Amino acid sequence: MLIEPYQDAFLPALRNLYLKSRKASFIWLDTAGYELSDFDSDVEGEQIWVAIIGEDIAGFISIWEPENFIHHLYVSPEHIRKGVGCHLMQLAKARYSTLSLKCMSHNEPALQFYQSQGFTRQSKAEDSLGEYYLLTL
User: Fold this and answer.
1) I want to staple 59 with a disulfide (CB 3.0 to 4.6 A). Which of 5, 29, 75, 122 is the partner?
2) Phi, psi for 47 (deg, rounded to 5)
């Protein structure tokens, strides 16, 4: 597995991965309005690293660097439980002394993953998508 900084050549695959992963993960939300172009606006201004297995884009992490905030960590459904999320998280931990993120309270698999990586729940809040936890490392 390689972890590389974002390159424009990755854009089509990342758009597909982002759309497919959100639809698979957020089963409690109405995802009918999600579009491929959501990726572009949702990661604007963020530092992005991409996990590559063979010739496949297997996942990505995007970080809003002014706050060391993990805005997105997605793994392609075909590569779940293959260490992709762990490798991306290891990179983030190595580059940033502190990290924080929001995780939807309904997303139990993600909450379990983040807690296994050492994140702790700091607070609970709600936004237009529903209830979430703020986690920090």
Assistant:
1) 75
2) -85, 130
Q: What residue segments make up the domains of the chain, in order of their start? A: 2-97
Among 85, 119, 116, CA closest to 100: 119
Q: Give the span between the Cα atoms of 121 and 102, in whole angstroms.
A: 9
Topology of domain 2-97, CATH: Aminopeptidase (3.40.630)
Q: What angle do CA 10, 91, 3 make, to 5 degrees?
A: 30
For the chain, how are helix, strand and coil distributed in percent, rounded to 5?
Answer: 35, 35, 30
Residue 94's pLDDT is what?
97
User: Which among 34, 27, 50, 54 is positioned nearest to 110, based on CA atoms?
Assistant: 27
pLDDT tens for the chain, 137 residues: list them: 999 999 999 999 999 999 888 877 766 667 677 788 889 999 999 999 999 999 999 999 999 999 999 999 999 988 988 999 999 999 999 999 999 999 999 888 899 999 999 999 999 999 877 899 999 99
The rounded distance, in Å, linking the Cα atoms of 14 and 9 is 10
